Amino acid sequence: MIRVLIADDQAMIRSGLRLILEDEPDITVIAEAADGVEAIEQARRLRPDVCLVDIRMPRADGLEVTRALAGPAVPDPLRVVVVTTFDLDEYVYGALRGGATGFLLKDAGPALLVEAVRAAHHGDALVSPSVTVRLLRHLTAPPREPDESVRALSDREVEVVREIARGRTNLEIGAELFISLSTVKSHVSTIQTKLTLRNRTEIAVWAWANRVV
């Protein structure tokens, strides 16, 4: 059972998200929080599998909550999916760089919400398609010198990084590159170690930043 915490300052939104999630046989909502400070306190106490966090909340916003629960300095980070009405670039990058494993717009629909929760629980990342498209548009910007760490990757590892940045699952990567699922997982683990990254979202952000895609 996937245990979820919902953090949003609007009671109606929290109720709507709860209804969608608890309609699924493998998901249960264990707590709700009406502001950022409460979200951090409850998440640290209850250790949910996935935290759904709104961007704009009183006392501490969603980016602060994300950094507190999933940031680079957190010794045992939780999985955070940011759910918001606002798809401003600074929110997207702030959330992903802060450690979020997903970024979802509230108008994305129930199916994508459920998929994002399951993806986060399994260590994968899901970003709303409209947001992904805009992130990829940054690839049209003038190229910059790639980070030195690019040279640490093998050709096959670079291929895996590209597929992750395109939003492919491990199964899809295996099919695309004609390698087994276990080999894909091994490559992902090695890539994370070489680049000092913690999850697939960070790999994707790194790939976009270094124009590896």
UniProtKB/TrEMBL annotation:
* UniProt-listed SMART domains: HTH_LUXR, REC
Q: What's one GO MF term for it?
A: DNA binding
Q: Where is the HTH luxR-type domain?
A: 146-211
UniProt keywords (A-Z) are: DNA-binding, Phosphoprotein, Transcription, Transcription regulation
A family per Pfam: Response_reg
Ranges for domain Response regulatory come to 3-121
Picking any one GO biological process from the record gives: phosphorelay signal transduction system
What residues bear 4-aspartylphosphate in this entry? D54
- Look up the domain of life of the source: Bacteria
* UniProt name for this protein: DNA-binding response regulator
